[in-house]
Recover the amino acids of this structure.
C-alpha cells in the first residue's frame, strides 16, 4: 500500500471565476449574433423566410441535412 | 479575470470552432456526401417533377457544404466559449483544459445527441415538405429544452454538492436530467416520414455520418479550445524570463485590454 501520508496527486489550482457582470454584455451581444448565424445555416428559407427565394436554402442544403436540421 | 479575458476566450473559441469545423467538413465530405448523393438518386428515381437547379450539385457538395459546416463551427465555437466563461472555476476544480473538454462533451450531448435521439437527421427525400414548419419547431424546441435542462442540472448539482458530496450530487443531477428528457421524449410528438421503400441501410449510414460529423466537431473543439484556453489562463512560469527581466507570463493573461 502507499505510504499513509503520501500526498495525493496535486489538485488543479482553484481558478477564480470570471464575474458574471463582465461576461453578460459579451454573452448577450455575441450570443444573439452567433445564434442568428446558426439560424441562417439551419433554418432560413425552410419553415421561415427572412430573405425571399431559395438561394440560401439551396446553397447550404447539404450542410443542413448533414448537421441534422430539418430540411424541405 | 475581466472583460478582456472574455474577449480573448471568445476569439479563441471562434478560432477553435473554425479549426474543428474544418475537420468536421472533411468527415462530412468523405462520409456524408456519398449518402446525400445516394438519397438524391433515390429522390430523382421516385419523383416525376424535376425542379430547376438553383445551385448545382457540385457546388452544394463542396462550397455550399463548407459554408454551412464552417459557419456552424465558428458560431457554436463562439457560443461554447461564452458558456465556458460562465463554467470556468464554477463547475469544480478542473484545469482550464479539462473544463474545455468537459464542456465540449456536455455540449455534444445537449446540443446534438439528445435532440438527435428524438428527431434524427434525415437525408434528402425523407420528410414531407408540407410538415417542415412542424418539424423545425419540434427540433428547435427539443434542442432548447435539452440545453436548458442541461444547464439547470449543472446548477442543481452544484447546489446539492455541499449536502450530498460531489459524487452523489452529480449522480442525482444526471438522473434528474435523464428523467426530464425522458418525459420530453414521451410527450413530444413523433416524426416518422421515411418513404416505404427507402433503403434502411442508407438511412442508418446517413445518420451515423451525421453523428460522426458532430463527434469530430466537438472532440476537436474541446481539444483545440482547451489548448488555447490553458495557454491563455495558466501560463507556465518561465524562470529564464524572470532572470532576464522579461516577464512574459503575466503579460499573456493581462496585457490585452
Amino acid at each position: 500500500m502507499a505510504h499513509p501520508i503520501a500526498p495525493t496527486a496535486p489538485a488543479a489550482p482553484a481558478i477564480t471565476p470570471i464575474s458574471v457582470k463582465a461576461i453578460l454584455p459579451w454573452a448577450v451581444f455575441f450570443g444573439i449574433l452567433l445564434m442568428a448565424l446558426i439560424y441562417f445555416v439551419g433554418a432560413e428559407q425552410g419553415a421561415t423566410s427572412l430573405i425571399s427565394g431559395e438561394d440560401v436554402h439551396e446553397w447550404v442544403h447539404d450542410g443542413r441535412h448533414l448537421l441534422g436540421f430539418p430540411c424541405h | 479575470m475581466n472583460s478582456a479575458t472574455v474577449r480573448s476566450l471568445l476569439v479563441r473559441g471562434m478560432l477553435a470552432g473554425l479549426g474543428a469545423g474544418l475537420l468536421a467538413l472533411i468527415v462530412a465530405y468523405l462520409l456524408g456526401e456519398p449518402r446525400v448523393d445516394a438519397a438524391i438518386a433515390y429522390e430523382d428515381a421516385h419523383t416525376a417533377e424535376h425542379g430547376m437547379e438553383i445551385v448545382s450539385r457540385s457546388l452544394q457538395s463542396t462550397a455550399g457544404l463548407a459554408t454551412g459546416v464552417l459557419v456552424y463551427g465558428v458560431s457554436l465555437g463562439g457560443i461554447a466559449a461564452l458558456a465556458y466563461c460562465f463554467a470556468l472555476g464554477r463547475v469544480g476544480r478542473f484545469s482550464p483544459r479539462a473544463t474545455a473538454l468537459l464542456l465540449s462533451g456536455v455540449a455534444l450531448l445537449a446540443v446534438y445527441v439528445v435532440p438527435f435521439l428524438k428527431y434524427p437527421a434525415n437525408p434528402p427525400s425523407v420528410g414531407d415538405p408540407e410538415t417542415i414548419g412542424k418539424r423545425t419547431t419540434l427540433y428547435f424546441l427539443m434542442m432548447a429544452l435539452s440545453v436548458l435542462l442541461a444547464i439547470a442540472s449543472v446548477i442543481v448539482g452544484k447546489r446539492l454538492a455541499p449536502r450530498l458530496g460531489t459524487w452523489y450530487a452529480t449522480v442525482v443531477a444526471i438522473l434528474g436530467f435523464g428523467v426530464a428528457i425522458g418525459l420530453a421524449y414521451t410527450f413530444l410528438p413523433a416524426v416518422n416520414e421515411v418513404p416505404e421503400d427507402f433503403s434502411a441501410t442508407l438511412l442508418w449510414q446517413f445518420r451515423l455520418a451525421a453523428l460522426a460529423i458532430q463527434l469530430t466537431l466537438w472532440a476537436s473543439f474541446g481539444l483545440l479550445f482547451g489548448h488555447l484556453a490553458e495557454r491563455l489562463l495558466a501560463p507556465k512560469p518561465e524562470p529564464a524570463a524572470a532572470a532576464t527581466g522579461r516577464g512574459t507570463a503575466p503579460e499573456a493573461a493581462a496585457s490585452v485590454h
Remarks:
- Chain A has a mean pLDDT of 86.
- The helical segments of chain A are 20-42, 55-59, 61-66.
- Residues 39-72 of chain A form one domain.
